[in-house]
Amino acid sequence: MASPFLCPGAFLSPLAIDEAVTRALDEDLGRAGDVTSTATVPAGTRGRAALVARRAGTVAGLPLAEAAFRRLDPAIEISAGARDGDAVPAKAVLMTVSGDARAILGAERVALNFAGHLSGIATATAAFVRLVSHTRARICETRKTTPGLRALEKYAVRCGGGFNHRFGLDDAILIKDNHIAVAGGVRAVLARAREAAGHLVKIEIEVDTLAQLREVLDVGLADVALLDNMDPATMKRAVEMAAGRLVLEASGNITHATAKAVAESGVDYLSSGAITHSAASLDIGLDIEI
Fold it and tell me: Which CATH superfamily is domain 131-277 in?
């Protein structure tokens, strides 16, 4: 049965949820379990608790919080106050749980870690999306994700209204400056890439200058050009040069302060590693009643 907390516009595999929650609970409970709760809370004590957003933000990660509680108490009762992708105000109740008090306390930190971290990514993404909403540009992340959490973090980006870049090295061909240098230039590297690519594999190539972009356009074998660390004025010229022949992605130190100007240059995508690797966790707490 699908979680009622899942974002309706994004997919997150139940296998990914189960694997991540299992790993996190195993790490936290260790060999002896929650010795504090075992020592201080009588067996069979019932508890009721609420996950509460301490500040406003966009929510993600609630299905993992739900799974953490259910893993330790399969009979626990959980009610949804929000779902992933919702923009919530401070003090909003995101979910309530009623069940074994030891289980609630044992799963608390894992539930909050996932919900806070992924909601922070969704909140940062939503802020970018708002900044460029008057343009046609879309916001996406990069592969600068926490090892082992990539699928979850990319799901959080979708919850925030963003789009996903490639999930791994096997998704698409992305030719960076080092590939160009090793392969012997733009023309050579694109020819090799096109010869090897299947008919469903896109080819993107990074360019640092307008002269490189001109060479890419003249070769004509790429689908996407990544405009690396260009200022908005140069990006605007790149858009004029491409004239719709390539999808253009802007990347390199794009922040909330620069996103508006970059999007207004006319590029199709803005990719930001900071969305995943530097997003501040959303403050979410557990308020419990016995």
Answer: Aldolase class I (3.20.20.70)
